[in-house]
Design a protein that fits this description.
- The complex is a heterodimer of chains A (about 675) and B (about 290).
- Helix content of chain A is about 30%, strand content about 20%.
- Chain A is an alpha/beta fold and about 675 residues long.
- Chain B is about 75% helix and about 0% strand.
- The longest helix of chain B is centred in the first third of the chain and has 37 residues.
- Chain B has ten helices and no strands.
- Chain B is elongated, with a radius of gyration of 23 Å.
- The chains are: A alpha/beta (about 675), B mainly alpha (about 290).
- Chains A and B meet through helix 15, helix 16 and helix 18 of A and helix 1, helix 7 and helix 8 of B.
Amino acid sequence: MTLRVRGLKVTFVGSGRPVPAVRGIDFEVSANQVLGIVGESGSGKSVTSLAISGLLAPGTQVQGSIELDGVELTTLGAEALRKTRGRDVGMVFQDPTTTLNPVLQIGRQVIEGQVAHGQVQAGQANQRAVELLREVDIPDPEGRVSQFPHQFSGGMRQRAVIAMAMSGHPKLIIADEPTTALDVTVQAQVLAVLAKRQADTGAAVILITHDLGVVAEVADQVAVMYGGRIVESGPVQAIFEHPRHPYTVGLLRSVPRLDTVDTRLVPIIGQPPTPTELPTGCAFHPRCPVGRNRLVCAGQDPALRAVGPSHSSACHFPEEVAPLMAAAEPKAAVGPRSPAPVEAPTTAPLLVVDQLQVYYPIKAGVLRRRVGWVRAVDGVNLAVHAGETLGLVGESGCGKTTTGRAIMGLVAKSGGHVLFDGQDITHLKGDGMRHVRRHMQYIFQDPYSSLNPVLTVGDIVAEPLRIHGLYDSLGGAKWVAQLFDMVGLSTTMMQRYPQEFSGGQRQRIGIARALALKPRLLILDEPVAALDVSIQAQVINLLQDLQRELSLAYLFIAHDLSVVRHISDRVAVMYLGRIVEESTKAELYKSPVHPYTQSLMSAVPVPDPGARATRQRILLEGDIPNPSSPPTGCHFHPRCFKATELCKRESPAFVAYPGSPTRVACHHAGPLP
Amino acid sequence: MSGRWLHTRQAAGRVLAHKGALLSLLYLALMIVTALLAPWILPFDALTQDYVNMLQAPGAVHWFGTDELGRDIFARVIFGARTSLLTAAGAVTIAGLIGVPIGLVAGFFGGWRDTLLMRFVDVLLSLPGILFAMALIAVLGRSQMAALVAVGITGIPSFARITRAQVLSLRKRDFVTAVEALGGSSSYNMFRTVLPNAWSPILVQVVILSSVAILIEASLAFLGVGIPPPTPSWGEMLRTGKSFLHDSPTYAVFPGLVLTFTILSLDTLGRTLAKVLEDRHEVVDSPGGKP
């Protein structure tokens, strides 16, 4: 057994009451094994990893035992701990941008630990660094070894961090959300590298994540954390197929999946608890469908008990959990659900975007002369009909957010046209634009920064009415109260300030504000990306309900293919400033014809460990190129598995794909063999 | 307004938790109150001369002694506070009313407005405070107004720059973009959304400039170009007291001490405010959760 944790408790003692972040957890990881720790924010998963690596702030109380290969870490002195950490434990953190020191060469950083611990002679350091970079598939390692972090892309940085963590052949690797900051195609690469290096070194891995798909993809054992405790643990198959804790079931049911038919998401009600305000008894009982009204659940914190072979659950009523899951089984057998009407809309589209371009000048030199353009949006065509949802997906930097903001008139357009309800709004200014904005509203990604902190939330929702002078004509306070009601917030909260609300609640306030003027189109920029999984489902359901009730049109911008699939009627895929494929949801997800769409879909981790072996994987090479110097011809050709000479020379036109509602920009479009 | 009040009260509470800041605040409050009520509570007038009791040492009747014309030094110190406070208030008003809008417009719109306004501010910044004041006094003659306007003008750049820096970071925040997306006009956005979020460093600057203004006023008076006699001023008293160091060593001590304490208090208060308001921002901005 490599790592054995027994009765670990971590308490933050500050000026106020002691805050219990981890409340007694036990687990083990052996060599060659991957333990996935899953949980939402505040569940204590990151604190656990910091406790194991001895990186908690001084003054934090750590109780219990952490044993690495028979050595007790909790009682180790600072110097011995430092040595153990350097030799036996490797860490991979979430954000590779801040993990690497920007003023040190990559090679030196990768090898620094080994040199410091005397495992490598200074003379051989460079050679060893090159080897390490080669082992994590960094192209041209001899050239790259002397580069600085800013010359690396996000995915390459994370691979360099993995190289660094693996350099000393550690017995244990702790990866804390290692792919959360990365795009899905890059995430697939990084997970592959992590798995390969683990197989090479035989290390034990603790993978901490909120993404059930990633866990299903790489973990052998899973521990689900909630409120500072492990509520369920077991082999990955058992956890995903026969969960025995209501929280696990809740998580599985609240995540939209790429591989199932659309059933309405079943969110977990309420908010995840913070360590400062834990409910009594079982921390999950206020949100639990099983224990909500039971005295024993409110009074007694259940112990983690065996419910199957090496499968345990901390629930008073584990036998009542199975029926919950059954209710959520994908109803694949029912056959294709008669889908929301996707027949060719007869009316004119509400929003038409025609050859939209947004270029930013690159200025350089003393005279700030323009030396080039960043083509953030490079000829985008879109149409959104009344009452439908168009999903716009793409990886970071592809220009999807800029597209949304340009339509809204928040950034200047360099070319093309935007028509709203038949009216050309491309160059509208002042009053004209203000009038259009009444019917077209925007919802922001980050609910923490999109609400004015000095206004009460009641005033925030009323602000658009006041700006347009419609406060009285739309019903004033009564209408504002109605809006609060519509988004599921109590009107008693209207006098509070945004700081007093959680992320999900703030996003609801943002939605209420957007609805105040009774718009016809909402542009939603990653509206659920910043939220915990259980809260995501609540907001997605709310958006779907509102769309049905108010027949709103949505332009739903996101990077998450599963979420987009869940909410959209039609989907457009964007790559480097251009739409590469657009179709109805059913067609696009069933038979994508653009190689980029195909690889994107294959890269999305699916929360189904059973499918791990059978899934077809296309691993894309490299990263998204810099939009200031896009590749010639088809922008995708350097990463494309179908690319030919033609693709290098000529940019493909965006045309209809024969025999389907799909439009595609590819010389070699066609289904996967 | 409960939440807003809560925040203001919390910030105030944290300022008062610092002992230095609490003492400074008490001292300043005492000074302001006595200066305001001076004509009604003081037994002596600052201008009444008494040729019998000249250059007296501190005693039961004249707490701080008397000056070369037999005037009560305690009364003159208190009335001197009025001069200092008025200069500070006037200078801050001028600097704030001109500097804050400049920074607001420059930061909000950017582009040529930014370049134009900030170059103007750079020109002002190149004026050395005391020299500029003396030049202005040379033109306008010795008066409180001249000193006040001079300090006010030299204070414009700091207000403009601080406001601009604050606006630049707020401009990128989604809630400012949100108002734009809602259809709010630029002036609505600037004054109703951006400015109320930018006040905290401006408040700190108010305290700091007050201290600078009081010091410059005292320096001018000490150089003999400040507010004309017989109006009492701390700098003026220091200057005259200097000539009687031998006959009445305590003459210059009291105005000097009061001046020192005032500057010290303002600086302590400014520093504590800056620290507390910065912490408050960290608390407000973080999504919370992880300790």
